[in-house]
Amino acid sequence: MVVISAPATLQERTFDQLVHGLAGAAGRVLVDARRVSWVDPYGMLGLLAAGAVAGRAGERPVLQLPESPEVLSYLTRMGFFAHADALFELHGAGRRGREPAGGSAPSDVLLEITPVRSHADIHGVVDRVHERATLLLVNQLHYPLPEAVQFSVILSEVCQNIIEHAQAPGWVAAQTYSRTPQLARRVGRIAVADVGIGFKASLAGLHAARFGERWSDATALEAAFIHGMTRFHDPGRGQGLQQIRRNVGRWGGKVSIRSGTARIADVPPYDDAPPLEEHLPPFPGAQIFLELPEREPGGGPGRGARGGGP
Q1: How far is 192 from 96, CA to CA, in rounded Å?
Q2: Which pLDDT score, from 0 to 100, does residue 298 have?
């Protein structure tokens, strides 16, 4: 059995530690998450994605659950176990007494993990994402309602794209925090992830030939994220990522996309992540991370400051 140790803080910048353990793993996989002491929506979706990929070899992976009662309670609140049960054999003290996803009252501080699986349920997903994202942006981050509604519509479209081109299941989740280690103000974090074909394969039919031997995961991400290239022939279609990038940039936030062996990002002043990373351990699909700071009094974007605790 291949044992993969999850990082103590499981989020966008540490997800590659999980992926590195999966790369080249032969045989049944055990993900040891006992020492996880903090996890955000991206980290939760990363765990689900890792379980989906590890199970493709035919043997159901094992997840050793976190020992922290606070982390277990949060995973329950986010509906994590309703999805993890289908992917992992779960071990640990948190196996019993879990509520299903959607069992809690609606909240304007979070969007529980919502699966994106088929055309049959996409309308419900779009409505749920639109409603919760709008509440989060307006009530928690104090964005004007028209901007929040526009962004929520775009985010819903990005979720719908999972069904249209990823050819594999995906998930979306969101949470607001009073502060993060990088931002000393309220912050919203949104994650959208799938384990499908990824940007390189999705865009190859229309764009690979013009790049020739330079076509790669990084080139595909640059083509979509920076230049607005899409898999559609029709002008104006498939521009959701471009619109999200413009909005997040205007609000002083961060957006990053990981696909295949590369990650691209628009990085705000408070974050020191590189704008482009190549030669990462391979992982299928696309994993999107959005971080939105609270709007400052007077209407400006929240730029935040370094330092501080979670």
Answers
A1: 27
A2: 56
- pLDDT score recorded for residue 118: 79
Q: Is the CB of residue 6 less than 8 Å from the CB of residue 39?
A: no
Predicted local distance difference test score (pLDDT) of residue 301:
52
Q: Which residues contact 173 (CB under 8 A, 6 or more apart)?
A: 41, 44, 45, 78, 110, 111, 112, 113, 114, 190, 191
**Cβ(41)–Cβ(189) under 8 Å?**
yes
- DSSP designation for 158: H
How far apart are alpha carbons 90 and 109 in whole angstroms?
28
Task: Identify the pLDDT of residue 297.
Answer: 62
The closest of 155, 121, 261, 260 to 202, measured between CA atoms, is 260
Strand extents, DSSP E, the chain:
2-5, 9-10, 29-32, 38-39, 62-64, 89-91, 110-116, 170-177, 187-194, 254-260, 262-266, 276-277, 283-293
Strand 283-293 relative to strand 254-260, pairing: antiparallel
Q: Which two tokens stand for residue 69?
A: 């009662």
Beta partners for 254?
Answer: 291
Backbone angles phi, psi at 202, to 5 degrees: -65, -40
- Which pLDDT tens digit goes with each residue over 206-237? 888 888 999 999 999 999 898 878 765 444 44
Residue type present at position 206: L
Strand partners, 30: 3, 62
Residue whose token pair is 């990038």: 245
- Looking at residue 212, the DSSP 8-state letter turns out to be G
Q: How many residues does the chain have?
A: 310
In a 3-state reduction of DSSP, which class is residue 32? strand
In the predicted model, residues of the chain with pLDDT beneath 70 are 94-106, 231-239, 297-310
- Please report where in the chains the tokens 């922290």 appear, as a residue: 68
What's the whole-model pTM score? 0.90
> What is the Cα–Cα distance from 113 to 46, expressed in whole angstroms?
12
**φ/ψ bin of 94: left (φ > 0), alpha (ψ from -120 to 50), beta (otherwise):** alpha
